[in-house]
Amino acid sequence: MNEIKAILEQVQEGSLSVNDALLALKKKPYEDIGFAKVDIHRKLRQGMAEVIYGASKTPEQIIKIIHTMQKNNQKTILITRLSLEAAMIIQKTCPMDYHADAKVGIVGSRPVADGLGKIVVATGGTSDIPVAEEAALSAEIMGNEVLRLYDVGVSGLHRLLSHLDELMNASVIIAIAGMEGALASVIGGLVDCPVIAVPTSVGYGASFGGVAALLSMLNSCASGVSVVNIDNGFGAGVLASRINHMEVKK
């Protein structure tokens, strides 16, 4: 949206003709590179650039997508679900900050945080950290300040309660838990901000790969809790960022 607004402001100031502005806006919204159609206008439409889903793509395909994005002035590129093996190949061609726990790669500089407040990412246990890091890194790349509160699950409730100030001052909270998924309900009952619940596939046999936590979170008795899919840290990070950047539309 910033690019479109800048073009319109130039027309208003008289520094850009209507025809030149029309030409700028008519540029094709994607670039076809054969195996992929890279969405160049996504940031204009949605406020965030396209993100590369790394799973099932070859390193060579990812490198070509990165180069296409960079050619179109995308300064920061997020790659999710990226294996260590693929990351090592990509790093030979494209300098990249790789986070093995979250399977996230970051190409380019991180933006300055410009959200309305702070996003808190809380986990029930240490085993939930890979999903939490995917959420936290995604939110940071989208221009948010993130506070991590890890291993604060309900099996030791005092750990969570010792962070009440941070929780109550948050703009958005992402609550990530496996097992029975109770963390989201507990946090939802303590705060006045939106809570995004992320069930994880962590747990013993009856957790059914995260389905038990998913159903618990969907049935939360606390108001203001929404739920994303099992292990979907990226989806939670995007939603939290959008909430944290909401402004009144005039």
Identify the notable features of this structure and list them briefly:
alpha/beta, Rossmann fold, 2 domains, five-stranded parallel sheet, four-stranded mixed sheet, 11 helices, hydrolase activity, Nickel pincer cofactor biosynthesis protein LarB, P2CMN_synthase_LarB
Helix/strand-derived category reads alpha/beta
Structural domain count? 2
Helix content: 25-40%
Q: What is the name of the CATH architecture of the largest domain?
A: 3-Layer(aba) Sandwich
CATH structural fold name of the largest domain: Rossmann fold
DSSP strand count: 11
- Give the ordered list of helices and strands: HHEEHEHEHEEEHEHHEHEHEH
Beta fraction of the residues? 15-25%
What does the overall shape look like? Answer: globular
User: Measured on Cα atoms, how large is the radius of gyration?
Assistant: 20 Å
Strand order of the largest sheet: 8-7-9-10-11
Low-confidence stretches: none
**Could you tell me how far the N terminus lies from the C terminus, measured between alpha carbons in angstroms?**
15 Å
Mean pLDDT: 90
Characterize the main sheet: 5 strands, parallel
**How large is the count of helical segments?**
11
- Report the CATH C-level class of the largest domain: Alpha Beta
Protein name: Nickel pincer cofactor biosynthesis protein LarB
Domain PurE: 117-249
GO molecular function, one term: hydrolase activity
InterPro entries: P2CMN_synthase_LarB (IPR039476), PurE_dom (IPR000031)
